[in-house]
């Protein structure tokens, strides 16, 4: 069914092989008949941010000059949507409190819900980012007493998780807690840092997870951070020892200062895999231009007038993105990776992280990732003939598949080795 390369030995856990029995509507085996088998979705979550498509999903034609989310202008929406949907199956949408509710009592629920439904209607899993975070807390919280800040944060979490339940069921429940109580920024004060300082990290984590869990018991909730040092390991240990249920650990990997390489990546994954929780690489980036200087501590401090993509950088990015994804997918604990930006236009910090240039043309990295996800790790429509018992052998990347014959079609899941049966609807 599929041709495997030598590199596939490290990905054996991502594949499944099954004998598929195809039956007619009356239950009889579809014997000695040509059928077409094709993959329709990966079980692994290959994601990207959906910020660029919020305006497009809402039918908007003008960019919002006050939007804190950045992203490409609405005019690029249709083109970018086609590229996005051709490659990814999971979208992260922006729920930064300062932008979602810039004025108290006026949340942007309708607009974000329309965008979330737009993705969901196209078979995309939608994730919200984040429910609690200090950096983009709203200014109107600044003069609110801490007890009331806690009450408002609880209400905000319950509201968003409840309003979006069934459409957005995956959330970064809380973001960057390691630095949260000691965060210092002369240009921007915030009330969430004050709350976390006075209550403590673990009680603040508990607040976020318990409110989100109460609002949607079936939601997948992440503890997400960019600080992947032992400090985050200690936090995870403390959170779990406190009895807080965490569904997955979110690891950011903005590689603006250069690709980590396989050894560092695997060492990082192993350190966090020891907790026995799924790992989500929530924010991955690789540059296609000049790298950020190594002495920059806070990536936000690197501000340049122009940060262009370059031919040499694009070739480097294409090679590194393949290495990065192969490494992540090879690790059994990893179940999701989200690339942080489809296009350079409106990208975070103006960095050339996108897979698409600002003019809308694809970079080599887009083609390289497409070749990996939709060629090497994907089963294209393949015609086979069933045996006398209506069986064919199917081997492919774990995920969703479809089998069709004579105009009838049925879906099935390939998630383990074994036998699978499907019944084609009567034509």
UniProtKB/TrEMBL annotation:
Transmembrane domains' residue ranges: none
Catalysis: reaction(s): Endohydrolysis of (1->4)-beta-D-xylosidic linkages in xylans
Entry EC number(s): 3.2.1.8
PROSITE patterns for the chain: GH10_2
Keyword Metal-binding (UniProt): no
Ranges of residues in domain GH10: 74-372
Presence of the UniProt keyword Signal in the record: yes
InterPro entries, per the entry: GH, GH10, GH10_dom
Similarity comment: family membership: Belongs to the glycosyl hydrolase 10 (cellulase F) family.
This protein's name: Beta-xylanase
Taxonomic source organism: Georgenia wutianyii
């Amino acid at each position: 069914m599929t041709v495997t390369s030598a590199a596939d030995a490290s990905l054996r856990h991502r594949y499944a092989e099954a004998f598929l029995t195809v039956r007619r509507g009356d239950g009889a085996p579809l014997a000695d008949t040509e059928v077409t088998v094709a993959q329709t979705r990966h079980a692994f979550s290959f994601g990207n941010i959906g910020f660029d498509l919020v305006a497009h999903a809402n039918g908007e034609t003008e960019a919002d000059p006050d939007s804190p989310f950045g992203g490409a202008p609405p005019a690029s929406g249709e083109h970018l949507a086609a590229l996005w949907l051709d490659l990814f199956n999971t979208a992260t949408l922006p729920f930064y409190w300062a932008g979602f509710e810039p004025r108290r009592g006026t949340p942007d629920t309708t607009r974000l819900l329309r965008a979330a439904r737009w993705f969901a209607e196209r078979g995309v899993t939608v994730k919200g980012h984040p429910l609690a975070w200090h950096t983009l807390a709203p200014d109107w919280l600044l003069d609110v007493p801490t007890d009331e800040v806690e009450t408002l944060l609880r209400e905000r979490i319950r509201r968003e998780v409840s309003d979006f339940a069934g459409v957005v069921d995956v959330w970064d429940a809380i973001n960057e807690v390691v630095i949260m109580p000691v965060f210092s920024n002369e240009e921007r004060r915030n009330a969430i840092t004050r709350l976390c300082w006075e209550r403590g990290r673990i009680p603040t984590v508990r607040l976020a997870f318990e409110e989100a869990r109460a609002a949607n018991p079936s939601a997948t909730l992440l503890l997400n951070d960019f600080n992947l040092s032992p400090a985050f390991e200690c936090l995870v240990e403390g959170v779990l020892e406190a009895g807080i249920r965490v569904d997955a650990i979110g690891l950011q990997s903005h590689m603006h200062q250069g690709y980590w390489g396989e050894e560092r990546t695997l060492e990082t994954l192993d350190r966090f895999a020891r907790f026995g929780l799924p790992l989500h690489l929530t924010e991955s980036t690789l540059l296609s231009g000049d790298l950020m200087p190594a002495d920059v501590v806070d990536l936000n401090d690197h501000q340049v007038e122009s940060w262009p993509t370059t031919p040499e950088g694009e070739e480097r990015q294409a090679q590194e993105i393949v290495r990065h994804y192969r490494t992540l997918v090879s690790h059994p604990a990893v179940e999701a990776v989200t690339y942080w930006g489809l296009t350079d236009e409106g990208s975070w910090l103006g960095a050339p992280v996108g897979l698409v240039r600002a003019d809308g043309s694809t970079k080599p990295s887009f083609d390289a990732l497409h070749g990996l996800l939709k060629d090497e790790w994907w089963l294209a429509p393949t015609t086979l003939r069933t045996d006398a018992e209506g069986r064919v052998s199917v081997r492919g990347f774990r995920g969703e598949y479809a089998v069709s014959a004579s105009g009838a079609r049925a879906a099935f899941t390939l998630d383990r080795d074994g036998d699978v049966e499907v019944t084609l609807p009567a034509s």
